[in-house]
Amino acid sequence: MASTSTESTIVPIFIKREDGKSFRQMKSKEIAEIVNELEEELGFFKKGGVSIATGGDLFIRPATKDQQLKLLKVNYVHKGKIMVTCKLPNAASGSRVTIHQVPLGDTDEEIYHALQDRGYKIVSVYRFKSQIGLGKAPTPTVALEFNENAPSEITLNGMMFKTRPYIPGPPRCSKKCQRLGHTSNHCREEKRCNNCGSRHEDMTNCQAPARCINCEGKHPASSPSCPKFLRMKQVTRPTTTEQDRSPIAHPTKHLSYSQALGEPSPPINHETEILKGKVEALQTDLAGIKAELAKVKTLEAKVGKLDTTVNHVRDSLATLEKGQQTSNSKLDRLVLLLAKLLPDTDTEDMDTSQPEETRPVATGTRPAVSKSTRRVSITTENNGRNEMLDIISMYIPNGQACDEDELTQLHRLTSNNTIFCGDYNARHGLWDTRSTHPNHSGRILANLLEKEKNIMLATPPNLGTRQCPSTLKFTTIDLAIMSPHLAATAELKRGPFIGSDHLPIHIQLVTKPMQFSNRPPSWNFSEANWENWNTSIRQTIESTDFHRTGDPSRKYQIFISALHSANTANNIKMKKTSNQMKAEPQRVWWTEECKKAVAQSRKARNACDPARVSCESNKAVWREKEIQKKKTIIKAKKEALNKHINSLNPKSSPTKTWAFAKALTRGTTPPDLFSSPIKDPKTRLLTTDFKEKARILACQYDHSDGILPDNPRFEQ
């Protein structure tokens, strides 16, 4: 019996590979060779004592203490091919305890270093946290892990703390199904709400009645008073006394959590009856407290109504203040315009009577520059005059790298009717009061707008042109800089969300467009008579000195005149360009599923408001809808591409594929490639083949029937 008792205390050994691989990846034959090799050297292990641990290590139960000590010294197995490390389980080589009433100001690192300086063989320190609302707050309880038996009491910064054995609570799948007995890493069920146990989107702010998914009680699944939770907790409760307390907790029986739940409840002793009487007394006191609480809730309802009234008043004041700021902003812009147009005028005479410290800054600051800028000129009517208006699109990729000389030169070369707009990536308090740290681009732009008199900032303060995808906070980095007379009357508004983190900006000017830059004119060949056209050109050229003159400009004028006269005589007319702006054609892959997915994604994003408590859960829903939208669009594109590929045949023209590619990427509707057929004069049949059409067109100009006449002019 003594031998059996001694053998039962032998701790098993874990053998871990040093090459980063696990024994689970090996063949069973190779593992058997390793075990036979160890048994030949150390003796036979305990019967059935060899297995693969959960982490992939080799788990061996030695038969004797001497065999255990020798096994701990093994460094190589499998005839020296595999380097290993043999070690005891963490529970056998160390211990975990808890201490209580530790000051909340001490961090885990400070406690760790303080105990280490005292000579304790500390391994780790962890302060427990409790859930308060949507966040977590530290508690006075701290867990300590030693690589030896923990002392019964420790000294921390001169204060004495008694240690208690660390008893881990029952595992619960807190991130997925909320059930007891396993963790989220080993859960295959769907995510459920902690409060009601059902599946829905906003689980953080669930307003449904509480229902435990484990015991069907009227409490959340995380409640510490859950009967099933208490039953499972009883499994890990140690049977120790104050005189003989082990620093490591052991369960009273070797039972699983499911077996513990299936056992009958322990019998009630006399102390339980005493506690029951105390509970009844507490319940009586609780009833009185509830009555008082009902009165307090009535007062809270009245206070809530008062808060609503106060909020309405605050909103009204905010609206008035915003209107005042807008008016003051326009006055300041007008003052700046007059100051630039009339430099000899004293600006103090034009003061808007607003205190200096409260006047909003609507003037001054910024442009941004790119190596390649896009510029468009249109004719507008301004104050009864037709003038060209230059609109230049600007972009600075990096707000910390902006060339001041290049920016200054760009603005000095502009006319008096210029608009600079785009993504400046410039942060400064002049146009965004929330920006407390200006970047390099912002400082350069602010300085430039103060010096230059021919430009003026038109973007109102705190317009919020970009919304951060993670925090959903607005910043103003997209700016519009104009000539002073344009900025004084311009109105800028922020557009709706259309998929990008940069929101569109609508600019309204007090001008009237007179002429639009449109596509070049084209020719209409539908009624052309090519045979007469060719004859007309030849007759016109031969009736002049085209072949006798050696002046290239003279030849050019003769040929152009012949070309225009032949066009007029043979119904070749120039098409009229339409000034009507047409909507962009629908992309070939755009389906109803894509439209629905995009609408759902935008709806979920609009529900994300940083001021609301449920913003985090709404952002999670938005990210899921965004992922679903991308998957739907990719699927639609693949289906459109497969449909196009299936429609191809050996006689298909490459132009058909190019037309589809343009429609897939640019949104252009693919043309009907079988339109505009021509008739073969020999066979009298219509054809759409491009090679045949080219041959027929070439034959219309070939009247030699294969015999070229001699021409002395071309033989010289």
Automatic annotation (TrEMBL):
Name of the protein in question: Endonuclease/exonuclease/phosphatase domain-containing protein
Domain Endonuclease/exonuclease/phosphatase: 390-505
InterPro entries, A to Z: Endo/exonu/phosph_ase_sf (IPR036691), Endo/exonuclease/phosphatase (IPR005135)
PANTHER family linked: DOMAIN-CONTAINING PROTEIN, PUTATIVE-RELATED, ENDONUCLEASE_EXONUCLEASE_PHOSPHATASE DOMAIN-CONTAINING PROTEIN
SUPFAM superfamilies: DNase I-like
Start and end residues of each stretch annotated as Disordered: 238-269, 346-375
GO function terms (MF aspect): catalytic activity
Source taxonomy: Eukaryota, Metazoa, Ecdysozoa, Arthropoda, Crustacea
